[in-house]
Design brief:
- The protein has about 475 residues and is mainly alpha-helical.
- The protein has one domain: MFS general substrate transporter like domains (Growth Hormone, Chain: A).
- It is built from 21 helices and no strands.
- Helix 6 crosses helix 10 and helix 14 crosses helix 20.
- It starts with a helix and ends in a 14-residue tail after the last helix.
- Keywords: Membrane, Transmembrane, Transmembrane helix, Transport.
- This is Permease.
- InterPro entries: AmpG_permease/AT-1, MFS_trans_sf.
- It is a multi-pass membrane protein.
């Protein structure tokens, strides 16, 4: 709702493709979820968590934030004030990401092994992609029959439905406070947190937007070189810090502050191997992210109607995505991980290249549905394999924070490039853009020989696996 559907909404309102690309940078927010992920491992939501437990407490707070952010996007759906549209989209991205951090930590704690993770990841991705497809196709269909305000309100109500289901669940503790009291207390605290986050986001956004405009940046500025320079900065900073981290004692991370310990432990465990590892995860999901950025504007430019797009995003995408996730989970459970990763990368590349065929083919519903199906199948397969792989890299001591870092970092480079997608598209066209994005995803295979040879260090105080 803050990415694919929003880019389509902006395209239908005639917003320039370069500006639409800039909106893709909202999806960068989940990349930095490691910055607040340790808070979810360490702190609880007052009221909710005392009754339902820490993980479910954070999920309930996040769902309130998601609902209110989407309602705000509904009532600004004319996109006459783009900074306001961006503000509410950012808030939606923040609460969606917080929900993912809580759910991922819970999932990894439930099933720490590869064989156990594969079916849980498949089930998780079925739910995730089903919701994504339902929101995308549902919103587009409602917008086609009515308007974007009703579309966002409809999905907001649907997104809120799990909240009462969670509220009806039994408590986690044997001696919880009263359910009604916990619900009222948690809701009041959550609304205060949501309001404070909205005010803080608005203030920070105003400062950043003023700085960017003051520096002379416009839609005509070629941001691609700047984006690539920014993308290299984390690797440079980590390379500088690694010699010192590498010399630390094995128990040093455990004695560090909670917001540092998970990441220092991860870097210590993989030592210099963390650099090719992070490069690999940065390229592996490249095709998935870049497809999501410009696929809907491409469909709009190719002349497809909202009804056709709704069907492609709905029945077609859901069926093919679920099939891809199922096969990806099976590959991750039954095949050597290196083989599963190669299959996923190839599927992702094909999922991008199919849009080159769509762009040159005579527009028809059949062409659109085939392209959408191949895209969703390939990226569903790739996503399932990748989630299992990342889950195997984390330490049982810091599952939520480390998974948040790895999964967030995996999208840093793709989402940075995604923000420049409009600029790139104007230079090389839609066909060149999707050829390039598929090739970048496939390039991850070149790093596999280095990545699969990595053997993490084990602290002497830890039992051997």
């Amino acid at each position: 709702m803050f990415n694919a559907v929003l880019t389509l909404r902006l395209a239908r309102h005639g917003v320039d493709i370069v500006v639409i690309g800039f909106f893709a940078w909202i999806a960068l927010l989940p990349t930095f979820k490691f910055a607040w992920a340790p808070l979810l491992d360490r702190y609880s939501v007052p009221g909710f968590s005392r009754f339902w437990g820490r993980r479910r407490g954070w999920i309930m707070l996040s769902q309130l934030g998601i609902f209110l952010s989407m309602v705000a996007m509904a009532f600004t759906s004319d996109d006459q004030n783009l900074p306001l549209t961006a503000l509410f989209a950012l808030l939606l991205a923040f609460w969606t990401t917080t929900l993912e951090v809580a759910a991922d930590g819970w999932r990894i704690e439930l099933a720490p092994g590869q064989a156990e993770q594969a079916p849980i990841v498949a089930a998780n991705l079925w739910g995730y992609r089903s919701a994504m497809v339902a929101a995308g196709s549902g919103a587009v269909l409602v917008a086609a029959r009515s308007d974007w305000t009703l579309a966002y309100l409809t999905i907001a109500v649907a997104a809120f439905l799990p909240f009462p289901i969670l509220a009806a669940m039994r408590p986690e503790r044997p001696d919880p406070p009263g359910r009604t009291r916990a619900l009222l207390h948690g809701t009041a605290i959550s609304l205060a947190i949501i309001l404070a986050s909205a005010v803080a986001t608005a203030g920070i956004g105003w400062v950043l937007l003023s700085a960017v405009q003051g520096a002379g940046f416009t839609a005509e500025t070629n941001v691609t070189p700047i984006v690539l320079a920014v993308a290299l900065m984390p690797f440079a900073a980590l390379a500088i810090a690694l010699p010192r981290i590498n010399r630390l004692a094995a128990d040093a991370p455990a004695r560090m502050p909670a917001f540092l310990a998970p990441y220092v432990e991860l870097f210590w465990r993989y030592s210099y191997g963390i650099l090719p590892l992070l490069a690999f995860v940065s390229f592996y999901r490249m095709g998935d992210v870049l497809t999501l950025t410009l696929s809907h504007p491409l469909w709009n430019a190719a002349g497809y109607s909202l009804e056709q797009i709704s069907m492609a995003d709905g029945v077609v995408a859901l069926t093919c995505s679920m099939a891809g996730v199922a096969l990806g989970g099976l590959c991750a459970a039954r095949l050597p991980m290196v083989v599963a990763l190669v299959i996923g990368a190839c599927a992702s590349a094909i999922g991008n290249w199919v849009f080159v065929w769509l762009w040159f083919a005579e527009p028809s519903s059949w062409v659109l549905y085939v392209a959408a199906g191949v895209d969703q199948f390939g990226h569903g397969l790739e996503g399932a394999v990748f989630v299992v792989y990342l889950s195997m890299l984390v330490s049982p001591r810091y599952p939520g924070a480390q998974y948040a870092f790895l999964s967030g970092f995996a999208f840093l480079l793709p989402r940075l490039i995604g923000g420049a997608a409009g600029t790139i598209q104007k230079q090389i066209g839609y066909d060149g853009f999707f050829m390039l994005s598929g090739a970048l995803s496939l390039a991850a295979i070149l790093l596999l020989p280095f990545v699969m040879r990595l053997r993490p260090r084990i602290a002497e105080t830890e039992p051997l696996p």
